[in-house]
Write a structure and sequence with these properties.
The chain has about 650 residues and is of the alpha+beta class. About 15% of the residues lie in helices and about 35% in strands. An eight-stranded mixed sheet has the order 29-30-32-31-33-34-35-36, with helices on both faces. The longest helix has 18 residues.
């Protein structure tokens, strides 16, 4: 995982060559008599967030249940969805901390799940026993743990924790009978851990040299004294990604952008040392993984901010022929252990992820969930359009555009520039309750993928290195100019809004430009010096990569101060809404406290929504609703 991705708390989920496409030119509209705007029902924030969010797709040993994370209760908990389509069962009952489902045990109905405390990101791993009781198998203070996979014997599994050294994750093998454990890799050199082979012999490791250059190594866990094997020797700056070992444990599939702008999948044979191209596209290959015995291979490609997924039957060499499915992107594909069943999600701009099951070869798939609030008619929602516009230097900037159904040349609407997190995140097509609620209330939204966004080639990705708050901010300003070129947008009523890094650029836009009528900053950085000095210790393996991109506070303090809105708050003259989580380990509460205080000193309208039980992002549905109501009210008051 690349360092930037750790900053992406609020990317819209979650790629073209630089300048390869011309800007979208609006079509001139003929003069017309005054026409009444389209009338559609306007739904409340409560209605939009009564939609259920689902993820996870582990199938149990008897092919009867799917393990899922759902926020149906108001906070994410673990649920079991029967494959026959009958009603799901809630398995955990947290009212505070979000719980994420991980995996069923291979031979019974125990399950693994993770949870942190109030959004502090110190996740522990728990076993949900068959009697409903829970057990923390990674106890301790101030440690972070993550599940790393099952051994092919179906008895042992792997867990990484930083309990020995907060800056490095060691690897343990657990016994599923008594939860006893053995350390199998002591991470003295601060590697970033990757995948583990099914037979438990091989561990993939990442060594990050800079934000554009890294290497993959493979450690032989049967020979702990032997140095890890370097499998990606190269010249120049090349980025790599560990995808997965093949089911027979003979090869590692990994990503590399050595051959051009985009990441390709390559295979490395651990016995012969032979490497070859495994899969390539005209966009980034995002992931490659296999069913239990290798019958099916799943490949995901980030195709112009939309996931293009293919499933290969490795026995026939042909793509798996799926039944007729609703429109949308396929996500979360998983196979049963006998490879006879498949579960997956379908997601689109106007439909949140719905869970499906399919008996391979049967004529139809079964829909297991109905996630959209039944009181919302999908016909009243809006599908997005991928657009492009030129920035100040002629660079083509991609964006995701949502046009309200009420908008027309005779009924111009206000607009919001929405900026993703990251910095290297990406605004993607797919359902967003936040965006659909605002669009439903008549606000156009332009999700800008400014320079530095992922998915558009490595050149585009690195154009913002140590240029944050400068060139990428101009991409935002020119996004406003693009909106002003549309005959259905009110060019005098344009706001800027974003979360995490997008919150930073929002505040930069308010402090360093006079372009926007208001700003909504969600968990945004305002003081880069403090943020980079206080990064969590478990980010140590890629600290240098962060410094390469953003700057080292020890040597680049002057520039970081210059681009930090907090030190220029006297220039902010327009209304600002700030949203912050008190437990945020990435953007500390003190940053937002100080930012709000500084804006108030200007006698500028500022509202502050502080959540005592949130971290960097929302865990609670009630808090999401509160924040969403604040966004709309602020927009209605000031825009």
């Amino acid at each position: 995982m690349k360092p930037r991705h750790y900053w992406s708390a609020l990317c819209l989920s979650a790629a073209m060559l630089v300048g390869c496409q011309s800007a979208k030119t609006p079509t001139p509209q003929p003069s017309a008599v005054q026409v009444q705007p389209v009338q559609i029902p306007q739904y409340s924030a409560q209605s939009f967030f009564d939609t259920v969010t689902l993820y996870g797709s582990s199938i149990n040993h008897s092919n009867s249940q799917v393990l899922v994370s759902s926020d149906a209760s108001g906070v994410f908990n673990v649920y079991s969805y029967p494959l026959d389509g009958s009603a799901p069962t809630q398995l955990t009952h947290s009212n505070t901390n979000a719980i994420s489902a991980v995996s069923w045990f291979p031979a019974d109905n125990r399950a693994l799940y993770t949870s942190d405390q109030g959004g502090n990101e110190l996740h522990h791993l728990y076993v949900l026993e068959e009697d409903g009781s829970s057990r923390d198998i990674t106890p301790g203070e101030k440690l972070k743990a993550q599940f790393m996979g099952w051994h092919q014997d179906d008895i042992h599994f792997y867990v990484a924790t930083n309990e020995r050294d907060a800056k490095a994750f060691d690897l343990y093998r657990y016994d599923s009978e008594d939860y006893g454990r053995t350390m199998v890799f002591e991470n003295i050199q601060g590697w970033e851990l990757g995948d583990i082979s099914n037979n438990g012999n091989w561990l993939a490791l990442m060594k990050v040299h800079s934000n554009a250059d890294d290497d993959i190594y493979v450690a032989n866990l049967q020979q702990p004294a032997a140095p890890p094997l370097h499998i990606t020797p190269h010249q120049g700056r090349v980025s790599h990604t560990v995808f997965s070992f093949t089911p027979d444990s003979d090869e590692l599939i990994y990503g590399s952008n050595a051959q051009g702008e985009f990441t390709q999948a390559w295979s490395y044979n651990l016995l012969s040392g032979h490497r070859q191209l495994h899969y390539a596209d005209n966009w980034d290959v995002s992931f490659v993984y296999f069913s239990k015995n290798g019958r099916y291979q799943v490949v995901g490609v980030n195709a112009d901010a939309q996931t293009k997924l293919s499933i290969l039957d490795t026995h026939s060499g042909k793509q798996l022929l799926l039944p007729t499915l609703p429109a949308g992107d396929l996500r979360g594909v998983n196979f049963s252990r006998d490879e006879q069943r498949m579960v997956f999600y379908i997601n689109s701009d106007i439909s949140p992820s719905n869970l499906f099951s399919w008996q391979l070869g049967s004529p139809a798939a079964k829909q297991l969930s109905q996630s959209l609030n039944p009181h919302i008619d999908a016909a009243n929602l809006v599908s997005s359009e991928v657009v492009r516009y030129p920035s100040f230097d002629g660079l083509t900037i991609p964006a995701i555009q949502f046009k309200p159904q009420q908008a027309s040349a005779n009924h111009k609407v206000p607009a919001i520039l929405f900026i993703h997190g990251g910095p290297g995140g990406q605004t993607r097509k797919g359902y967003s309750a936040l965006i659909q609620h605002l669009v439903n209330h008549g606000y156009a939204v332009l999700g800008v993928n400014n320079r530095g966004s992922s998915g558009y080639g490595k050149t585009f990705f690195h154009l913002d290195d140590k240029r944050h708050g400068e060139d990428d901010l101009q991409d935002i300003v020119y996004g406003k100019k693009y909106l002003q070129s549309l005959d259905w947008v009110d060019g005098e009523r344009i706001a800027v809004m974003g979360g995490s890094y997008g919150g930073y650029l929002t505040m930069a836009a308010m402090a360093f430009t006079d372009e926007f009528k208001l700003g909504i900053n969600i968990f945004g950085v305002t003081n880069w010096v403090r943020t980079l000095e206080s990064i969590p210790p478990w980010w140590e393996s890629f600290r240098q990569a962060l410094y390469d991109e953003l700057g080292d506070p020890a040597t680049d303090k002057e520039r970081l101060t210059r681009i930090s809105p907090l030190f220029h708050a006297d220039k902010i003259k327009r209304p600002v809404l700030v949203v912050q989580g008190a437990n945020d380990p990435r953007v500390l509460q003190v940053e937002s406290d100080e930012m709000v205080e500084a804006i108030r000193a200007n006698n500028v309208p500022v509202e502050y929504v502080l959540f005592a039980d949130e971290g960097h992002g929302f865990r609670s549905k009630a808090n999401r609703i509160t924040a969403q109501q604040a966004y709309l009210q602020f927009l209605q008051t000031h825009l």
